[in-house]
Amino acid sequence: xxxxRMGRRSQAPKSIWKRLGWLVLIWALGVGALGAVALGVxxxxxxxxxxx
Length: 52
Prior knowledge:
Helix content is 62%, strand content 0%. By secondary structure, it is mainly α. The longest helix is centred in the middle third of the chain and has 32 residues, at 16-47.
């Protein structure tokens, strides 16, 4: 009886630099989105007369 393979690898493993590049990109987009939300909240607080 032959062993059953559950998955197959259709692609070669990606390079470490490509993986790190994606990690840095996702991190930078997350930090940028958080900064944009923070600026929006500060702007709304300023319109309401609250000091941040």
